[in-house]
Here is the input.
Amino acid sequence: MAGYGALVRDPATGRVLVELAAPLGKQSNNVAEYSGLIAGLRAVLDIEPGATVQVKMDSKLVVEQMSGRWKIKHEDMRRLALEARDLCAEISQAGGSVDFTWIPREKNKDADALSNEGMDGATVHRVLTDGDATSEAAPESETAPEAEVTPAPARRWGESLRLLLVQAPLDAAATPRIVRAVQRLVGDDASVVAADAGLAAEVGQHVATALGGEARTSPDWSAQAPGEGADEQVRTAYRILVERGGTVVAVTSRRGVLSVLTEVLGIADDRFWALATAPGSLTAVEVWDEGSASVAFTNRTDHLA
Here is the structure.
């Protein structure tokens, strides 16, 4: 089940003004993220229509789409984005402004806790007074807008994860074959994550375009953390995907693929490089809603022949 959480904060004092959460039933992560954004913007209009608003969220996709840098291809997302833009326009017409900033998930814990309430079926609309407990104040060095909207990352507890790992190829000429192979294995509702540089980023963008969306690139999937064995940043990114569920394509390096595989299979560090994976290969991992995981296949390369 999906749910969103969002809060409106006065960053000059750090005081939370409004807390919001609601269940959404069976919806995609992107729909949940846009729903949290819309709820937060509506709350701002209720408080002060002419506010200067800084929207902070961990969804690179929503931030880039709302900033006009990425196209919106899915109809459901386009409808929600238009609704969010209409709310931004109302704020602007009242003398305010709205800017969007990406933040890492670990800096979004208050809103994340609200999203858990939504996923548990609760509908929350708390307007807090001066006497209510508040979160820590924002640093004094920040330029303080009148309102800060922080939608929580969308999460869907109790939903299985289907993860297709794509090892970045050595040659860009292999990209079309990789894209066609991925399309045969996943549906249009799959999301795409990728390392933020090199062929992994390029392949991720091509795969996402073919699926009708945008890739979320992140250094978490680059597998460049110090060390010779498993990359803990990749493993952390994988665990976040497990929490959210759904169908995901992740484009990473050989070390990134092995970091996930060895965690799923419980392989000791001294055997980390024992698994064979080729550039451009596909590996599938399934994590069931009760937490058990299995590897459907590894090192599939028939599409490269």
